[in-house]
């Protein structure tokens, strides 16, 4: 059975009916067909060369309906898609002061994909948008968890005596494990889970052992993005001072790169041996006085600690290349 012709065929036929000196002859022929009720002359498109199908309910010899000759309004051509759309977005973000630029995040992700071992990466930019690669992959926390211990202890203790302040300082500035265990015993897993809920973490898991808490890059990046708001006003300066004055031997990765470009860095790292090889983590918040963003790089199965540190340095360098 013949099918109804598409609108494009009718438009083509209509365009033909207005051509040059043949217009009067074609109009007269059409009038004769309509008034006499004679067998319809097959209407042929220039391209298909087949008769127009009858409208529903008509026989093949019925006159062609007038509506079949209406020329539809031409559809405007779609606007061409912009070339290098993502790069244009990245450039616009830089002009608006958004850090890190989206193109820089993509560059960091591509470079991280070439590194050995198992990795997770997340960044919360200065607008509060989260990006990453394997950002919900879970790792054991190692000493990164000490930043959460610091914040939760200060959230739950209005006053902090001098001895505890020294304990907290040792836990953060030199990553003292014994100090961390002492603070952990005062709050337990329940305290960490309570902070996780307030900080918007989605995948933190506990197991009764401090340095094997399950963390993800996305959760840690969210945590550091909200760090100043999570800290009580009375303790904010103290806590941020500790996280920005970690001893030089542990100030590798993000601070080693970012400080050279004028960024202030609040951070915590972690490292240990695992069944896969070497684990090296770092979470950081970077600020330049008017903008801030947070990053987290988690690695396991590194050939060495130096290799893991270089992975974190490389990610940070690429994030800052287009964000100055």
Observed structural traits:
Beta-lactamase; five-stranded antiparallel sheet; 43% helix; two-stranded antiparallel ribbon; 324 residues
Outline the structure in words:
- This protein is an alpha+beta fold and 324 residues long.
- The chain has 2 domains: 63 residues, no CATH class; 224 residues, Beta-lactamase, CATH 3.40.710.
- 43% of the residues lie in helices and 15% in strands.
- The protein has a 5-stranded antiparallel beta sheet with strand order 2-1-7-6-5, with helices on both faces. It has a two-stranded antiparallel sheet with strand order 3-4.
- The longest helix has 23 residues.
- It is globular, with a radius of gyration of 34 Å.
- The protein starts with 6 loop residues before the first helix and ends with a helix.
Shape: globular
Helix percentage range: 40-55%
Q: Which strand order do you get reading across the main beta sheet?
A: 2-1-7-6-5
Largest sheet report: 5 strands, antiparallel
Q: CATH first level of the largest domain: which class?
A: Alpha Beta
User: How much strand?
Assistant: 5-15%
**How many β-strands, per DSSP?**
7
Please state the oligomeric state of the protein chains shown. Answer: single chain
Structural class call reads: alpha+beta
Order of helices and strands: HHHHEEEHHHEHHHHEEEH
Rg calc: 34 Å
Distance between the termini: 68 Å
Concise summary:
The protein is of the alpha+beta class. It has helices spanning 7-16, 23-36, 85-95, 102-112, 145-156, 162-173, 177-199, 217-225, 227-230, 233-244, 254-258, 305-321, and strands at 118-124, 130-133, 138-140, 214-216, 264-273, 278-287, 292-302. The protein has two domains: 7-69, no CATH class; 98-321, DD-peptidase/beta-lactamase superfamily (Beta-lactamase, 3-Layer(aba) Sandwich).
């Amino acid at each position: 059975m013949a099918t109804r012709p598409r609108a494009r065929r009718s438009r083509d036929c209509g365009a033909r009916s207005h051509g040059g000196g043949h217009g009067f002859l074609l109009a007269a022929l059409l009038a004769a067909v309509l008034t006499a009720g004679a067998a319809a002359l097959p209407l042929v498109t220039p391209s298909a060369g087949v008769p127009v199908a009858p409208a529903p309910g008509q026989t093949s010899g019925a006159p062609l309906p007038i509506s079949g000759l209406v020329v539809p309004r031409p559809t405007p051509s779609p606007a061409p898609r912009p070339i290098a759309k993502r790069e244009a977005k990245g450039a616009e973000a830089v002009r608006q002061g958004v850090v890190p630029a989206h193109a820089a995040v993509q560059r960091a992700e591509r470079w991280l994909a070439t590194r050995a071992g198992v990795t997770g990466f997340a960044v919360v930019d200065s607008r509060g948008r989260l990006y990453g690669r394997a950002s919900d992959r879970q790792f054991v926390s190692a000493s990164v968890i000490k930043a959460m211990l610091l914040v939760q202890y200060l959230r739950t203790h209005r006053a902090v005596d001098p001895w505890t302040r020294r304990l907290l300082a040792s836990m953060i500035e030199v990553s003292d494990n014994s100090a961390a265990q002492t603070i952990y015993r005062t709050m337990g897993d329940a305290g960490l889970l309570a902070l996780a809920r307030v900080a918007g973490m989605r995948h933190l898991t506990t197991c009764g052992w401090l340095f094997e808490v399950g963390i993800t890059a996305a959760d840690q990046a969210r945590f550091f993005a909200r760090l100043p708001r999570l800290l009580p006003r009375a303790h904010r300066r103290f806590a941020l001072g500790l996280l920005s004055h970690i001893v030089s031997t542990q100030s590798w990765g993000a601070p080693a790169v970012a400080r050279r470009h004028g960024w202030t860095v609040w951070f915590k790292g972690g490292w240990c041996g695992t069944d896969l090889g070497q684990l090296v983590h770092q979470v950081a918040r970077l600020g330049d006085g008017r903008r801030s963003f947070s990053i987290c790089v988690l690695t396991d199965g590194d050939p060495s600690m130096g290799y893991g540190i270089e992975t974190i340095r490389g990610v940070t360098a690429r994030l800052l290349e287009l964000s100055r």
